[in-house]
Amino acid sequence: MRRALLAAALVLAGCGAPAPATPTAGGCGPATAVVESTDVVPVGADPGSALPATVTSADGRAVTVRDASRILPVNLYGSIAEIVFSLGLGDRVVGRDTSTTFAAAADLPLVTPAGHDLSGEAVLKLNPTVVLADDSIGPPEVFNQLRRSGIAVVLIDDEQTLAAVPRHIRAIAAALGVPAAGEALVARVDGEIAEARRAAPEGGPPPRIAFLYVRGTAGVYLMGGKGAGSDEMIAAIGGVDTGTEIGLEKFRPMTSEGLINAAPDVLLVMSEGLASVGGVDGLLKLPGVAQTPAGRQRRVVDMDDGMLLNFGARTGRAIQALAKAVYESCR
């Protein structure tokens, strides 16, 4: 069940009160930190759309949006829907993808019944006037079907980085005819990210953090590196991404040797992934995990799936929560 409030609640791992343990080099004791989800906060009321608006889609097409009364935002990360709601346009959204999990969108019809593939039939049933998407979702045939039906389809570039967040907000706001609301949202998100970056304490060794993408039910065990997205979140809180440090690019299979060489003193995982391997105890059974400083200290930061790699309008708050979770237990 998705949680409604943002928190960095620190709870001691295991049952009862464990014996004191010697902190790692980064000063991290034996605790698990949980970073929970939060709902979106609109930058203001629906400002109304100045349409028609002609924009250049990420695929190079010139698309004219004449009606933004029924919006369908979809992508692999849930970030497009998050931005639309944050612009104050949530009441116009008619459906959602699997990754759009925040509370305000929870009751919307699902248009990705098979994982992250769009159903053309499900989309057309909702009668959207404009579809916002990116290359992380498909198949392309569905977009062509929607275009033939007269629906404006605007693709946003799918770069998932902190630097891309303002660009995505402006592109979405332009397509929906609310550029002023877009600028207000950019200013808010930029301010939250800047504030989050200042949360990292000065002095002392930075926490060494490894991001593990695990899906026990599918047998997927990966470690993040440069370009995975997790590296940007870790750097934003003043940490060292150990996957990048040992030369990993994006996501690579998790190996005992790689983990031991990375020597993280904090493990960062997604909530659903951690649950899929049986929690912290199950995570420690994976090859190499228990042999890391983080594994020996049971130092795991468990972050809601919809927050960590989203790179949407809640990114600043996600960085703030991650910083709090890491630094309150690594002093």
From TrEMBL:
Which segment of the chain is annotated as a signal peptide? 1-21
Task: List the InterPro entries hit by this protein, alphabetically.
Answer: ABC_Transporter_SBP, ABC_transptr_periplasmic_BD
Kindly list any coiled-coil regions of this protein: none
Q: Which UniProt keywords apply?
A: Signal
Q: Which PROSITE patterns match?
A: FE_B12_PBP, PROKAR_LIPOPROTEIN
Q: Which residues form the Fe/B12 periplasmic-binding domain?
A: 72-330
Q: Mark the transmembrane ranges.
A: none
Q: Which family does it belong to?
A: Belongs to the bacterial solute-binding protein 8 family.
> Which PANTHER family does the entry link to?
HEMIN-BINDING PERIPLASMIC PROTEIN HMUT (PTHR30535:SF4), VITAMIN B12-BINDING PROTEIN (PTHR30535)
Know the name of this protein? Hemin ABC transporter substrate-binding protein
